[in-house]
């Protein structure tokens, strides 16, 4: 497997060199080859399609799904059957929880059985909720704008809970739906007015990637080659 990365470096006034943004990455393996170009605050594949989906596949790194969306689930504490219109992600206490998409925090506080709870409105169609949190991330409050992937809190067991997990739910037009069965719109494409500028940027980055020699150095912010593969992945 071959991995290539281009990233920025900045020389400070004191002479020290600091790492900046990753601006291009490429993975060439036995089963696949993929390239990511950073342009206009987003990641794009070379055909001009955004590599960022409308929502993350999950709001955290989890051990397992301990409870699925169901209209009839036996509650382990209350001991009776009732709907569970969300996904319970079992995870270690303190695991970072991320916003699955861009949006505005519409609720941040204690909410009965959900304990420490956050709700984010993403657009006129979708909103998501995050329950049983241990704590909120610094600066998270009602009215705060968040970006996809921003950490908004930590996994906990507050409220009516049997152990550390995240109760994650999504609303479509105000009604809870099964997140795991939703089909979202395809990734956006480069706007026509930016196409020429993007093509120029792409040509430059591809030339740079092609001329990179074999090196073992990787940016400090990338802890493993697996992160490069993840960076350059997208769904077909």
From TrEMBL:
GO molecular function: metal ion binding; metalloendopeptidase activity
SUPFAM superfamilies: Duplicated hybrid motif
GO term, biological process aspect, one: proteolysis
UniProt domain M23ase beta-sheet core: residue ranges: 83-178
Pfam families (alphabetical): Peptidase_M23
Cofactors (names): Zn(2+)
Gene3D superfamilies in the record: 3.10.450.350, Glucose Permease (Domain IIA)
Record-annotated membrane-spanning stretches: none
Keywords, sorted A to Z: Hydrolase, Metal-binding, Metalloprotease, Protease, Zinc
Keyword Protease: yes
CDD domains registered for this protein in UniProt: M23_peptidase
Xref: PANTHER family: CELL DIVISION PROTEIN YTFB, PEPTIDASE-RELATED
UniProt protein name: M23ase beta-sheet core domain-containing protein
Lineage: unclassified sequences, metagenomes, ecological metagenomes
């Amino acid at each position: 497997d071959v991995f290539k990365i281009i990233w920025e470096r900045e020389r400070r006034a004191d002479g020290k060199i600091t790492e900046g943004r990753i601006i291009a990455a490429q993975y060439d393996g036995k089963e696949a080859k993929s390239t990511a170009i950073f342009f206009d605050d987003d990641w794009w594949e070379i055909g001009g399609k955004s590599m960022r989906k409308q929502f993350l596949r999950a709001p955290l790194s989890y051990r397992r799904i301990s409870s699925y969306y169901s209209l009839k689930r036996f509650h382990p504490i209350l001991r009776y059957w009732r709907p569970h219109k969300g996904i319970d992600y079992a995870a270690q206490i303190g695991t970072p929880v991320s916003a699955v998409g861009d949006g505005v925090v519409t609720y941040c506080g204690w909410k009965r059985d959900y304990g420490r709870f956050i709700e984010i409105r993403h657009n006129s169609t979708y909103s998501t909720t995050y329950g049983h949190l241990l704590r909120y991330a610094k600066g998270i409050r009602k009215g705060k704008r968040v970006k996809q992937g921003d950490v908004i809190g930590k996994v906990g067991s507050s409220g009516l809970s049997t152990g550390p997990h995240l109760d994650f739910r999504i609303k479509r037009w105000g009604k809870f739906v099964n997140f795991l069965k939703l089909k979202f719109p395809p990734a956006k494409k480069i706007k026509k007015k930016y196409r020429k500028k993007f093509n120029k940027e792409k040509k430059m980055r591809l030339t740079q990637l092609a001329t990179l020699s074999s090196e073992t150095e990787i940016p400090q912010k990338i802890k493993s080659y697996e992160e490069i593969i993840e960076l350059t992945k997208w769904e077909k």
